[in-house]
Design goal:
Elements: E1 14-17, H1 19-23, H2 32-44, E2 49-50, E3 53-54, H3 67-73, E4 84-85, H4 89-97, E5 102-108, H5 111-118, H6 122-138, E6 142-148, H7 161-173, E7 178-183, H8 190-201, E8 209-213, H9 220-229, E9 234-237, H10 257-266, H11 275-289, H12 296-303
Parallel strand pairs: 1-2, 1-9, 3-4, 4-5, 5-6, 6-7, 7-8, 8-9
Helix pairs in contact: 2-3, 2-11, 7-8, 8-9, 10-11, 11-12
Bound molecules: 3-hydroxy-3-methylglutaryl-coenzyme A.
Residues 22, 25, 54-57, 59-61, 85, 87-88, 90-91, 106, 117-119, 146, 148, 182, 184, 212, 214, 245-247 line the site of 3-hydroxy-3-methylglutaryl-coenzyme A.
Protein name: hydroxymethylglutaryl-CoA lyase
Family: Belongs to the HMG-CoA lyase family.
Keywords: Lyase, Metal-binding
């Protein structure tokens, strides 16, 4: 009988921490040593997946320009995976050279976002990703897929759930073990998210889906709750609510991991994450960035602690 913190337990929800990548890609350039300390602290707090960085063009996203150094300096904790984003073969080869164990390819359900984010159409991106997935799989790496703009696009507005389902299925067919559905600009509401998950799960088994919510309109926790009701058991989030997307103006960070873990715990799910350690890590990285944590749960928990004597 698996324990409740075992991934095979029915009450387990996998939390994929994306703060060091999705969070820090939208900050001023953060020193490599701070990124490395953040990743190590997140793994120590019990997160089993910590998305570490991106092997993208430094001309496009200079904040991720130190990807090889980050990968060389993190302390790899057994049982923890450290995926990295790879938009093309050049990024993949660099990721392999840096010892990545898992990569993520990232497409969009909106043509305009695809062009702004990765400079190609959706169809071209799938062809590009096919080569990346094939080479990654041959090199023994696991491949995760993202679909951005599942509930709305900053350039086109509403996005048809059927378009999301098509891209998700294409990524599944390329060999992705998991497809993360990204509400990139946080516009979705529970009814819309349910409609998207419903459309996608007709083409991709719900066990292979993850929910990735930005909290721009304050809907992220409600949307995650709705996706749990639909059977999703993997949730992406960002410690302290760090981040945004450089190609989605006005988009705020992901939902805070602390808030997700607190909610999941109250719903009877287990995550294996030490909430207090996580909240301290969120407080620490926020101080490094010179601002308060974006996690309401962390603020509440830390306010209850006695001041240091
Ligand atoms: C895809 C490209 C490269 C196309 O960009 P491009 O300009 O069309 O690429 P290119 O092949 O023409 O190359 C241009 C230059 O970039 C170099 N280059 C080319 N590839 C790489 C690479 N991998 N690593 C390092 N360098 C690279 C290449 O060598 C060349 O250098 P030059 O000859 O000019 O000196 C570019 O658009 C890019 O890097 N985009 C990444 C954008 C990005 O990182 N966005 C944020 C992540 S997605 C996201 O946040 C959403 C998500 C996942 O969180 C989910 C959600 O919330 O929805």
């Amino acid at each position: 009988m698996p324990s409740s913190s075992s991934p095979s337990s029915p009450s387990f929800v996998k939390v994929v921490e994306v703060g060091p990548r999705d969070g820090l890609q939208n900050e001023r350039v953060v020193p490599t040593a701070v990124k490395v300390a953040l990743i190590d602290r997140l793994a120590d707090a019990g997160l089993s997946v910590v998305e570490a960085t991106s092997f993208v063009s430094p001309k496009w996203v200079p904040q991720m320009g130190d990807a090889p150094e980050v990968m060389a300096r993190i302390r790899r904790r057994p049982g923890v995976s450290y995926p990295v984003l790879t938009p093309n073969l050049k990024g993949l080869e660099a990721a392999i050279a840096a010892g990545a164990d898992e990569v993520a390819i990232f497409g969009a359900a909106s043509e305009s976002f695809s062009r702004r984010n990765i400079n190609c159409s959706i169809a071209e991106s799938i062809m590009r990703f096919a080569a990346v997935a094939e080479r990654a799989t041959a090199a023994g790496l696991r491949v995760r897929g993202y679909v951005s703009c599942i509930a709305g696009c900053p350039y086109e507005g509403r996005v048809d759930p059927a378009a999301v389902a098509d891209v998700a299925k294409a990524l599944l067919d390329l060999g992705c073990y998991e497809i993360s559905l990204g509400d990139t600009i946080g516009v979705g509401r529970p009814r819309e998210i349910r409609a998207v998950v419903d459309a996608v799960s007709r083409k991709v088994p719900v066990e292979r889906l993850a929910m990735h919510c930005h909290d721009t309109y304050g809907q992220a926790l409600a949307n995650i709750h709705a996706s749990l009701d639909c059977g999703i058991r993997t949730v992406d989030s960002s410690v302290a609510g760090l981040g945004g997307c450089p190609y989605a103006k006005g988009a705020t960070g992901n939902v805070a991991t602390e808030d997700v873990v607190y909610m999941l715990d109250g719903c009877g799910f287990d995550t294996g994450v030490d909430l207090h350690r996580l909240a301290e890590t969120g407080q620490w990285i926020s101080a490094e960035l010179g601002r308060p944590t974006g996690s309401r749960v962390a603020r509440a928990l830390l306010a209850k602690q006695p001041p240091p004597s």
